Amino acid sequence: MFIIGRSISSPMIQRPRGTRDFGPEEMEVRRHFEDMMRKEAALHGFREIATPIFEHTELFTLKSGPGVVEEIYAFQDKGGREICLRPELTASVMRFFISDLTNLPRPLKLFYFGQCFRYERPQAGRYREFFQFGAEIIGSPTPETDAEAIGLAAAILERTGLRDYRIRIGHIGILREMLARAGVSGDAALPILQRLDKKEYPEAEALMAQAGMGREAINGVIATTQVTGPITVLDGVQGPAGAYIREVYDILQAMGFSNLSVDLGVVRGLAYYTGMVFEVDAPKLGAEKQICGGGSYSLSELFGGEKVFSTGFAIGFDRTLLAIQAEGVEFVRPGITAYVVPVTDSARMRAFQVVGMLRRAGVSADVDIMRRGVGKSLRYASSINAKYAVIVGEKELESDSVTLRDMASGEQSLVRAEELPKRLKE
């Protein structure tokens, strides 16, 4: 026996490891929160862009080094070109900016949402295919810019209903300056910063010692990464970076954000970060609590463009949904406004006329296509969260009317067909 070209005994094809299928109810939830994020970004003056899911592999090896190939889905296309599925979106945005957007007025405020891919071990809240919401402000190197970026990230999270989150703000310039004073700068500082970013202190200490740093200087760097708390912890931090963080902090407070703290251990160990860096945690997620990260950077010249300062962030959409769920944020399934029920075969064509009229008027509507009885149709209408049932039978045909049934109260009334769209929009 065969079913659509395959033996019934053939093994079922499974989805690839680290990917997911999303059913109708889950997609309703996901689209609901996606739309929230998009609306909030638009309120802040950001405009949406989109970039390809696959890019030239060189775009990411230039940004992160050749070792990144081991962490991504990289391959040759049929033309022999080195291609990869994008592991993140910032590089794609800057490539797009350099090639097509440099003439737009600055600051350029952009946001995006899309799938990314990384070849890593799947675990709770981490997948090989995942989704990011991100934003970039291009062309402005000011504290106001950084505060705008952090403020958008916080506002997006609050719009979703998330309340228990913490913004940790640092400045990579503080550690870079300390390393430079000890004779370690440029490319030599990068592996140290990467270890500090991952809190791998023994490895970081070993690298600093190999670079010729003394014990006192090493201890000073380690101690600085452990400076956390309210803005007052910066009282002992010298130099322009500390003053810069204070200004960003003050602007955020002026905008009404209070879930703020200083954390000089936020390093974001990538070479292109140049100044302010930040991360956002959702404590209810436990050890894997980070849901957002970003900072100020200069990346465009790496891709052949002019040097342009930018600030951006990425929100892990999947982990944010887990945080929302952990807080018990309720999602009310929207359903549809009207479900049209033909009572008799002779009323069936009229039912399709009615549903077409409602849809053209902008009213969400569905119609029975299973030829069920009235009782089963009403039960189905309830299961899809229809607000009203629109019943069309012989008496309704005779009077050019429909029976409008409120699915919550059970109340029914006879309504002229031409008045139905207006009635349902009230």
Task: Write a short abstract of this structure.
It contains 14 helices and 19 strands. It has helices at residues 24-43, 58-64, 90-101, 143-159, 172-181, 190-197, 201-210, 215-225, 240-254, 317-326, 348-360, 374-383, 394-398, 420-425, and strands at 2-3, 6-7, 47-48, 54-56, 74-76, 82-85, 108-117, 129-138, 166-171, 228-229, 260-263, 273-281, 290-298, 309-316, 338-342, 365-367, 388-392, 401-406, 412-416. The radius of gyration is 28 Å and the shape is elongated.
What does this entry look like structurally?
The protein is α+β, with helices and mostly antiparallel strands and 426 residues long. It has 2 domains: 24-326, Bira Bifunctional Protein, Domain 2 (BirA Bifunctional Protein, domain 2, 2-Layer Sandwich), CATH 3.30.930; 338-425, Anticodon-binding domain (Rossmann fold), CATH 3.40.50. The protein has 14 helices and 19 strands. The strands form 4 sheets. It has a 9-stranded mixed β-sheet with strand order 3-7-8-14-13-12-9-11-10. It has a 5-stranded mixed β-sheet with strand order 16-15-17-18-19, with helices on both faces. Strand 15 (338-342), helix 11 (348-360) and strand 16 form a beta-alpha-beta unit. Helix 4 crosses helix 9. The two termini are 55 Å apart.
How would the blueprint of this fold be written?
Layout: E1 2-3, E2 6-7, H1 24-43, E3 47-48, E4 54-56, H2 58-64, E5 74-76, E6 82-85, H3 90-101, E7 108-117, E8 129-138, H4 143-159, E9 166-171, H5 172-181, H6 190-197, H7 201-210, H8 215-225, E10 228-229, H9 240-254, E11 260-263, E12 273-281, E13 290-298, E14 309-316, H10 317-326, E15 338-342, H11 348-360, E16 365-367, H12 374-383, E17 388-392, H13 394-398, E18 401-406, E19 412-416, H14 420-425
Parallel strand pairs: 3-7, 9-11, 15-16, 15-17
Antiparallel strand pairs: 1-2, 4-6, 5-6, 7-8, 8-14, 9-12, 10-11, 12-13, 13-14, 17-18, 18-19
Helix pairs in contact: 1-4, 4-9, 6-7
